[in-house]
Design brief:
Blueprint: E1 15-20, H1 34-51, E2 62-73, E3 82-90, E4 96-105, E5 111-123, E6 128-129, H2 134-139
Antiparallel strand pairs: 1-3, 2-5, 3-4, 4-5, 5-6
């Protein structure tokens, strides 16, 4: 993993959710553990995919699998803080794409962390990466949902 700065283009974020840091997610110093932050990123990703109608594994035994994570932590977080997650899709290709996530504090908007997760479309029956079908490609279109 490179040490390059995570930057996102304007307008990439099309989904928002809020999560509170639980006591079980902090270490002895009262700060959020790295593995807990990674779990919160996974939860934000799943909430985003659910909002787009993408199931973990569809009827064709295909699902999205994260195979690469780039994470930049800017600030530590304490228990019971509410975190604001902004999520969007970048660089969607035939069989993979990137999910961009920005985390800020609810009470002051200060940056906590940024992450980019590369995902692939995996066929669990064939045990290989396959191209997106039209339903998933349309659901993952990086443009905002229109109500």
């Amino acid at each position: 993993m490179s040490d390059r700065e995570l930057t996102f283009v304007d307008g990439v974020f099309v989904f928002e959710t809020v999560m509170r840091v639980r006591n079980a997610e902090i270490d002895a110093g009262q700060y959020l553990r790295l593995e807990s932050l990674t779990a919160l990123l996974a939860e934000a990703r799943e909430r985003f995919l659910y909002s787009r109608g993408v199931k973990e594994i569809n009827a064709d035994y295909q699902g999205l699998v994260v195979d690469h994570l780039q994470l930049s932590v800017n600030s530590r977080v304490r228990a019971r803080e509410e975190l604001f997650f902004e999520v969007g899709i970048e660089r969607l290709s035939n069989d993979s794409g990137d999910i961009a996530i920005k985390i800020t504090r609810m009470y002051d908007g200060s940056l906590v962390a940024k992450a980019r997760q590369r995902f692939i479309n995996y066929d669990f029956r064939l045990n290989k990466v396959v191209a997106f079908n039209n339903t998933i490609r349309t659901a993952l279109d990086p443009h905002p949902l229109v109500p």
